[in-house]
Structures are given as C-alpha cells and as structure tokens.
Amino acid sequence: MKLIVLLSAIVGASAFAPHGSPFNKGTELYITNGKPKINPKFKFVPVLRKDELPKRGQATSGVAGGLSICIAVDEKGGVFALGDKCPPVNQPLSIGKVGNGCITDPVLGTTFNLKSGQVVDWCPSGLGKIVGALFSPAAVPTYPVKSTGANIEVKVDVNYKLAYEQQYWDGVLDAQGKANGKYY
To answer: Which domains are assigned to the chain?
Structure first.
C-alpha cells in the first residue's frame, strides 16, 4: 500500500516539475485559449536580505514573483538562484548540499550545476535509482542574481504565476457563475 501511495505521489508531482530555464522562452506569448495573452515581464525582484544569505556551502529558500527560489552560496562565496522544486518529485532543492559548483538533493542524490541548472548526476542513491528510472533527467531553472542595497534580487518573469493561474480561475468562476463575476 505504501509503495502505491509513493508511486502515485511521484507520478502526480512530475506534472509540476519545472523544465529548463524560463529564460529560454525568448519573447513567446502565453497561450490563454481566447483570452488576452499575458506577455512575459522579466524584472529583478527582492528575494532575501543580504543578512539572510546562507553560509558558504549552504542554501536557503525564498519567494520572488510568486516563484519558489533556491538561493545557494558556493564555497567561494558566489550566489546562485535556481528553482526550488527538485525533479523528479519536487522536494525543495534548498535543503541540498552545495559544493564543487553543484547542489545535491539529499533525498534522491541528484546533483545540479549551480550556473546552468543542468543535471550532473541523476538519482544515484538507492531509492533514487528506483525513482529516477521512471523519469527522464530534468534540469532546474536558473535565474540571474544581483545585489542591490540591502537585498539580493533575482530576475524572474513576474507574470508567470498570473498567466499560469489565469486558466484555473476561469474554470472555478465558470463552475460558480460567469467568468465576468455575474451569475447565470
């Protein structure tokens, strides 16, 4: 029974795993099924204060533009921003170990390059080999980082969450009334 629950959680979670960097999309528009399209809008937004940065070789999590972000500091003091959802089962990447220019997920052992988000080693642990065999290796998105004043800022698409949720909210409103807020 536990195995069935674990497998269903893994399969369900893979639908929400990020695939690659959002900056590879260029200027394409989001598809919204007949509604006005929401264009990507990239901005630097604060994710942490400088005094909240983790120690060298560690990572922490934050939120920027509605997206979960992993902020990792390598052993040389370099600061990197990656998506905080670690494929294939979406546990937080921010609980991982940082070293040798990579961050390693402690649950399945997958190692990701801090600069590119690309997979260096896919699910090498015992449980990881079983779970990893069910999925193709998937990178995590990376984001540009800069220090401004007392803050660490990350460049994200501030319209990403809005565009993603636009279809969801339309469906909920249609179930309760018209999409314009009026009832039938």
So the answer is: 2-27+47-158 (2.102.10.10), 31-41+160-184 (no CATH)
